[in-house]
């Protein structure tokens, strides 16, 4: 594996290998006072984030450091990007400076693939850490890992994804990956927050959250991305919460084994109630923990592969 740009790039064997490696890394580090492995010693990982991030950015940096890589952070506000440097020139500069891997978040859909094309002759791997409304493949991997830990085999499981599907790269990557793993995916959203052509995706689409919860094996709540909205997509936050917010009443409609996920940050009281977000069935912090191990596994497969045993 040279790059990780889209969930579509991953075959079933690739997904299994990454998730199994994440499991091994998690067990290897369990109980260690010093969480440090020599696996990527001498490698340089650059995180280049052109959008705000907490979970993705921190987990990639922790993942690299726990594997002994040299991790360097570049942000748009503190680099030559602020002086007008193009993405291409920044990418070439990072490769020339010795980056073995560039972890990129960018507001433009397709940016990660463009960077991978520009660096094709430089031996630098590229990981898509979120590009516009396009994809976020490592989020889908950590979500799959979290669901696998909670539910076991995902084949035949019904996963409900509710919220702002239109602007969600998380939803797009999860649909692709969960379908590949054999799960049935149900998308729930108001008509204004569904993308054109969504009914051609391998999903069932509905506007009725209450109906979709019957028999669901898990619910993933999406963040309403107000920063990407230029206009009114629903009447008010209160009406959105009434129709699409996951509250205690709706949690009670789920089977007892069904967990709740959210990629964060959560808008409490609108997308999800405080009680549900903090309930034992919420796996939000598990997602963050698994994010570190899954991103360790991704870096391992990109930069070490068969050269070093986990």
TrEMBL record:
<comment type="function">
    <text>Catalyzes the condensation of carbamoyl phosphate and aspartate to form carbamoyl aspartate and inorganic phosphate, the committed step in the de novo pyrimidine nucleotide biosynthesis pathway.</text>
</comment>
<dbReference type="InterPro" id="IPR006130">
    <property type="entry name" value="Asp/Orn_carbamoylTrfase"/>
</dbReference>
<feature type="binding site">
    <location>
        <position position="223"/>
    </location>
    <ligand>
        <name>L-aspartate</name>
    </ligand>
</feature>
<feature type="binding site">
    <location>
        <position position="56"/>
    </location>
    <ligand>
        <name>carbamoyl phosphate</name>
    </ligand>
</feature>
<feature type="binding site">
    <location>
        <position position="169"/>
    </location>
    <ligand>
        <name>L-aspartate</name>
    </ligand>
</feature>
<feature type="domain" description="Aspartate/ornithine carbamoyltransferase carbamoyl-P binding">
    <location>
        <begin position="2"/>
        <end position="149"/>
    </location>
</feature>
<dbReference type="Pfam" id="PF00185">
    <property type="entry name" value="OTCace"/>
</dbReference>
<feature type="binding site">
    <location>
        <position position="105"/>
    </location>
    <ligand>
        <name>carbamoyl phosphate</name>
    </ligand>
</feature>
<dbReference type="InterPro" id="IPR002082">
    <property type="entry name" value="Asp_carbamoyltransf"/>
</dbReference>
<feature type="binding site">
    <location>
        <position position="265"/>
    </location>
    <ligand>
        <name>carbamoyl phosphate</name>
    </ligand>
</feature>
<feature type="binding site">
    <location>
        <position position="264"/>
    </location>
    <ligand>
        <name>carbamoyl phosphate</name>
    </ligand>
</feature>
<protein>
    <recommendedName>
        <fullName>Aspartate carbamoyltransferase</fullName>
        <ecNumber>2.1.3.2</ecNumber>
    </recommendedName>
</protein>
<comment type="subunit">
    <text>Heterododecamer (2C3:3R2) of six catalytic PyrB chains organized as two trimers (C3), and six regulatory PyrI chains organized as three dimers (R2).</text>
</comment>
<dbReference type="InterPro" id="IPR036901">
    <property type="entry name" value="Asp/Orn_carbamoylTrfase_sf"/>
</dbReference>
<comment type="pathway">
    <text>Pyrimidine metabolism; UMP biosynthesis via de novo pathway; (S)-dihydroorotate from bicarbonate: step 2/3.</text>
</comment>
<feature type="domain" description="Aspartate/ornithine carbamoyltransferase Asp/Orn-binding">
    <location>
        <begin position="156"/>
        <end position="302"/>
    </location>
</feature>
<comment type="similarity">
    <text>Belongs to the aspartate/ornithine carbamoyltransferase superfamily. ATCase family.</text>
</comment>
<feature type="binding site">
    <location>
        <position position="83"/>
    </location>
    <ligand>
        <name>L-aspartate</name>
    </ligand>
</feature>
<keyword id="KW-0808">Transferase</keyword>
<dbReference type="InterPro" id="IPR006132">
    <property type="entry name" value="Asp/Orn_carbamoyltranf_P-bd"/>
</dbReference>
<feature type="binding site">
    <location>
        <position position="136"/>
    </location>
    <ligand>
        <name>carbamoyl phosphate</name>
    </ligand>
</feature>
<dbReference type="Pfam" id="PF02729">
    <property type="entry name" value="OTCace_N"/>
</dbReference>
<dbReference type="InterPro" id="IPR006131">
    <property type="entry name" value="Asp_carbamoyltransf_Asp/Orn-bd"/>
</dbReference>
<feature type="binding site">
    <location>
        <position position="55"/>
    </location>
    <ligand>
        <name>carbamoyl phosphate</name>
    </ligand>
</feature>
<keyword id="KW-0665">Pyrimidine biosynthesis</keyword>
<feature type="binding site">
    <location>
        <position position="139"/>
    </location>
    <ligand>
        <name>carbamoyl phosphate</name>
    </ligand>
</feature>
